[in-house]
Protein 1
Amino acid sequence: MLQYLKSSGRLLLAPPNGWRVVLSADVLSQFYGFRQVSSRMPEAGGTLLGKLLVEDGSGVVEYLTLPGKGDRQSRFGFFRSRRHQREGLRYWQANDETGVYLGLWHTHPEATPKPSSVDLADWRRAVSEDVYHGKGIIFVIVGTDSIGFWHGGANQQLCHLGHLKHQNQEVGGV
Ligand SMILES: [Zn+2]
């Protein structure tokens, strides 16, 4: 349900509802940079933005909103401010109304990340309240050794798509 494409450094996500979502190598290397590898690094997070391909509706994640002004960040918590929605709107306008919201990401200070009860409640809220144009929402948790991926949507069970070990960034060209 996830496939790392070594030649291009991209990651393909394949939820059971048939949707396909690709994450660019650049997005994966940004996740790498937010790993909470030192005890001083707080949780980080934001949204996944990108395009839906006209041919088949596949999602392509190209842009992350990043932690900053208005967010509350601590070692074991990340509160996403409304600034991320405003940035998503600007991305939509700047891309001739083709730049869409595809998901949410945040970090955890654990090797193989798994959602907390707070995360699951946030994801349920996102599925029922957020406006999305793809076939669901992608949820990402960036751990210190690997990145976990989940998919949810209206009338769809939350589904774990798998974990990807952080790639050697020299191979990724960053
Ligand atoms: Zn979390």
Protein 2
Amino acid sequence: MNILIFGASGATGRHLVAQAIEQGFHVTAFVRNPGKLTLKHSRLRVVLGNVTNYGLVKKTVKGHDVVFSALGASSPFKYDECIAYGVQNIVRSMEESYVDRLISMSFIGVKESRPQGGFVIKYIAPVLLHTEIKLHQEIEYLIKRSALNWTIIRPSTLSNGPHSGVYRIGEYVSATTPVSLISRADVADLMIRQVKDSSYIRTAPAIMY
Ligand SMILES: NC(=O)c1ccc[n+]([C@@H]2O[C@H](COP(=O)([O-])OP(=O)(O)OC[C@H]3O[C@@H](n4cnc5c(N)ncnc54)[C@H](OP(=O)(O)O)[C@@H]3O)[C@@H](O)[C@H]2O)c1
């Protein structure tokens, strides 16, 4: 199984790469800054580039079975239009190359799932993180209107905690505390599980402890 990961040098992306390798997949990591991805493995290929480069994205997508996106802006307060443009490139390249499985990381703070996120996500995030929310709503729109077999994963507040494999997931799970956490390693765990699980195709489950 050939897996392609966009955002592979990021804090969650690096977990995705490591866990995918651990599970025996052949992994392509698409990165613009190779120094941030130190893992080396015979089943890991690194493609250097920017997701805004449609030609390169299309060439890279070809031949893969599953595509992951853990793309994100360098700051939650900065709107980076390159990312929405990049997701558009990914979706278009996949449709044109008949690669149809996309697993993408979003944020529970988007309008549809915000009430599930607890006090902070419900009342404070829309004020403080409106830029990040706007970006994820746009990305979700681009993905949902595609013909792909997509799964959008909506994590609550991210932490750098351990990989436990134990968390709550679903379209209706709700926070039981004002701030609900989930580790990046467990978000990666859930995303990788989607490779062999079709239950969440064309849905957007939330994930939290
Ligand atoms: N913070 C939270 O509590 C929270 C909660 C839920 C969801 N989220 C969302 O989760 C996502 C991932 O979070 P994270 O902390 O893992 O993010 P991160 O560490 O900032 O990683 C983002 C990745 O995207 C890459 N990237 C950005 N623009 C790119 C471009 N134009 N071309 C190629 N690659 C590009 C970055 O590359 P470089 O390494 O070169 O910068 C990096 O690898 C974000 O979208 C964030 O909004 C965050």
